[in-house]
Amino acid sequence: MGVSEDAIPSPGEWPVDPQDDLPITEHRIWVDGCFDFSHHGHAGAMLQARRLGNELYVGVHSDEAILENKGPTVMTLKERVAAVESCRWATRCVPFAPYVTFLPWVSHYGCKYVVHGDDITSDSNGEDCYRFVKAAGRFRVVKRTPGISTTDLVGRMLLCTKNHFVKSALRTLTGEEGPGSSQEHKQSTENLTQMIRDYATDETGLQPGLEVWIWTGSNPAKLGNTVEEPGSFQTLVNGKLPKPGQRIVYVDGGFDLFSSGHIEFLRQVLAQEKLEGYERGWYDQNQKEKRIKENGEDYEPAYVVAGIHDDGVINHWKGLNYPIMNIFERGLCVLQCRYVHAVVFCAPFSPSRSYLETMPLGVPDAVYHGPTTFIPLTYDPYMAPKRMGIFKETSSHPYQHVNAGEIVGRILRSREAYEERQRAKLQKAAVEELVKSSESLSA
Known about the structure:
Layout: E1 25-33, H1 40-50, E2 55-60, H2 63-69, H3 77-85, E3 92-95, H4 103-108, E4 111-117, H5 131-135, E5 139-142, H6 150-159, H7 169-173, H8 182-199, E6 211-216, H9 219-223, E7 232-237, E8 247-253, H10 260-279, H11 285-295, E9 302-308, H12 311-318, H13 327-335, E10 342-345, H14 353-358, E11 366-369, H15 383-387, E12 391-393, H16 404-413, H17 415-442
Parallel strand pairs: 1-2, 1-4, 2-3, 4-5, 6-10, 8-9, 8-11, 9-10, 11-12
Antiparallel strand pairs: 6-7
Organism: Aspergillus heteromorphus CBS 117.55
Protein name: ethanolamine-phosphate cytidylyltransferase
Family: Belongs to the cytidylyltransferase family.
């Protein structure tokens, strides 16, 4: 289904229920965009918007609307919708939202205010996409996440740069490493630490949510399977611990250019654990009533811990300028995902028995991986969990092929179009900056 830019759907033809108008409330917020690549800048906008209300409706533009106003998308509409729906702070995703934000769309879903970053977004005619909601006094501004955008990521791919790599995540977090002076290191550390805390919040965006650790081990233990080393875990953020009866599930990966392939894998892990829960009577009425009586609430049967490899590990195995996103950019993407409950930064490529036995929550009940071909052909990185009898594999799915390599391939196959997009984006940015300056002077 497609919706032209000036059309308002007829009753029964809205892309997402409800079909009848909802009462407008100040507590339901609207945010919209392209959401091409699910980078942490998008998640940051949704987090800030969610904190302004109790519900967040996220409009996603169609491929056709983006092509007309901005240029070609890298991800399809389905892939972009999957990314938005996985964000813990999104209440509902509305596909085919118009590129220019019309009040009837916002009002139909009962949203009083529209939220956007403090940058100007213009349509193909150079006009402000939010001019109508601004004129109606129903626009709210949040701070744009600096240093990350779809344009930045495309640029890294086209130029094959490695400037974004983080040599040591721990030294960066302690202010001992990074660009600039020691004072700049300190400020950067404070900002990064706060971002990790923010992205580890629960679905309200206000309360503690995810447990976050960083693992320290030798390079041989990180890179391969020849060194049996427990390493050490350090807590970065205290969040919600597993509840009684929940199975601890471990997954790991690079999660580079966090995409529909990663998201669907994580969703499938929870789906398989839900089936396992049915088999062990988790959803029996008496078990549900017991959980509510003893814990004050019901909850799902699995608690997912995601290990994220650092930049050096990924580059060792994949070469070139992989990963396209650095350890913190990838970590923030995983943190915002509703299918994850805890995160381990700098996890080893091969989870050894000693590593799994030293994990803060104890030995996992299961270690999952998708049916993919491992990068190294000389050994199986999951031999330890297989020997321990806790390894499980998810089934294949429609987004199985969507990973960093696939996304970079899409860019390179359409290099000329994306380079033109980069040039057009720079030209638009200059115009938008003039509009922003004009607005500031007249304010």
